[in-house]
Structures are given as structure tokens and as C-alpha cells.
Amino acid sequence: MTTRNWKIHPVIATAIAINAGILGLALAWSGDAVRLGRLLTEDGMVEWMQFLCFAVISVLLGYAAIDRFRRTGRVSLAVLGLAGLSLLVALAAGEEISWFQRVLGVDSPEFFRQNNKQSETNLHNLALGGASLHKVVLLKLIFIMGILHNLVLPLLARTRPALKRFIESLGLYLPPLSASLVYLLLVLLSHLLIKHERQGELGEMFGAVHYLSTVFAAYYLGLGYGGPKVIDGQADGRHASALFSLSMAFLLFVGWLLGAGYLRGAAL
């Protein structure tokens, strides 16, 4: 299967522009603790953008699993892998906003009030010693998996095509090295240049946007991916790419509206 050049694709370019723009905004506000805090705080734009991206990724993966099943007529490892990823990302989306707890105005059960570092109804902030599960375990795991998936495996796959085919047989994919390097660079810059107790939220958002674009590009357009793609035909792919790029920009707008709305409501 022939593939196109990832470097010039508008979906990837849009994701990079969004992440670079948010980093630029954080840098511009780095001297204003109030503005920077509003950007990175709980229920701020960055956190809502993470939720929106995770939610869309989950839907994309779920639909790709259904499409793969319809094409093959059997429950293969690839179908199970896609379905499992869809469920995992859906769980991440729910965890990000504490399962709509603050949206619905629901109080945390007693267990979470006693054992959650933020007294929220979620698992990733469960107390583990003097810190939370998120800081002690999950952040380290995310870092290792991020380097492995975005740097180590793509580099190895360049000289070992069988490795790439094996990964894709499990329903997984490898992001393009060019997009991954930009993503990792932006995460590094956010840690070096932004000084805030919640600066890690930027890197998490960069990852959510990065994966939103590369999941769509791989499974739906077949870019850099050897398995069957959801969208057939170059013309359909071009139209879908343009619409998806616009949709990503719209998600950023919605995230800004939600963050502004919830922060204003909390101030009242």
C-alpha cells in the first residue's frame, strides 16, 4: 500500500499549529499568574480540550473497529485491539472531568472524599502515600509509553518492517516520526519555559491533540499505515481531511468556551 508524505498533511499541520499556539499563549501569559492559572486550572480550557480530544478519539477508534469487523466479518486481533483502545481512551476522557461530577453538581461518595487527593470521583487522583496515583504511577507510565510509541518504535520500524506489520496486526499504529518529534519538542519546551504547578497539563493536552490527528490520519486516511483505511478514494480523503482540520479548530473554540464558562461560574 502506498502512503503519502505525513509532513505536509493538513490534519497533522493543524494539530501542530494548535499545540504551538497554546504554548505561545502560555508563554505570553507566563508573567501573569492569574491568566496562566485560568488557562491551566481545573475546568480550564486546557483540561476541557483534553476531554474533547479523548472523547473524539474514542469515537474514531470505536468506529474504526466496527468498520474493520464489517470488512472482514470476523473478530480479529485488530478489531479487539481497536475496540480495547476505544474503551481505554473513553475511560481517560471520563477521568479527565471526574465523570461529569462538577458538570452535574454531584457530591463525591465517602470513599473518594477520604481517599482522593482532590476529593473527586475519579481513580487517577486516588491517594498513594503522600501523592496521588496520577503523579506516582501514571505520569511515569505515560512518559515511558509516549517515548516508546513516538520515538523508539518508529525508529526501529524504519529498518524492521516486520515490527510495523506486527504492531498493526494488533490494531495499533505508529505515529509519523516527524509529527512525534514536534510533539515531544513542544512538551519539552512547556516544561522548560512554563513555571506553574500545573504546567504538566500542557503536555497532556499536546498529547491529546497529537493523537487525535494521528489516529484520524492513520486509520481513516491510511497515511503511514498498512492496514485497511476507513475512507476510500483520494477525493473523499481530501474532503474529510479539510473537514477534520476545521473540526479540530472548532474543538479548541469549544474548549475555550467551556473553560471560560465554568471558571466564570465558579467565581460567582
Furnish the topology, listing elements before pairings.
Layout: H1 10-28, H2 33-40, H3 45-72, H4 77-96, H5 101-104, H6 110-115, E1 127-128, E2 131-132, H7 133-159, H8 161-169, H9 177-193, H10 200-220, H11 234-267
Antiparallel strand pairs: 1-2
Can you walk through the features of this model?
The protein is mainly alpha-helical. It has one domain (6-103, 145-263). It is built from eleven helices and two strands, in the order ααααααββααααα. It has helices spanning 10-28, 33-40, 45-72, 77-96, 101-104, 110-115, 133-159, 161-169, 177-193, 200-220, 234-267, and strands spanning 127-128, 131-132. The protein has a two-stranded antiparallel sheet. It starts with 9 loop residues before the first helix and ends with a helix. Residues 1-6 have low confidence and may be disordered.
Order of helices and strands: HHHHHHEEHHHHH
Low-confidence parts lasting 5 or more residues at pLDDT below 50?
A: 1-6
Structural class: mainly alpha
> Given the structure, what is the number of helices?
11
Whole-number radius of gyration? Answer: 19 Å
Share of helical residues:
over 70%
**Tally of separate domains:** 1
Sheet with the most strands? 2 strands, antiparallel
Give the strand tally: 2
Looking at the structure, what is the overall shape?
globular
Q: What is the chains' assembly state? A: single chain
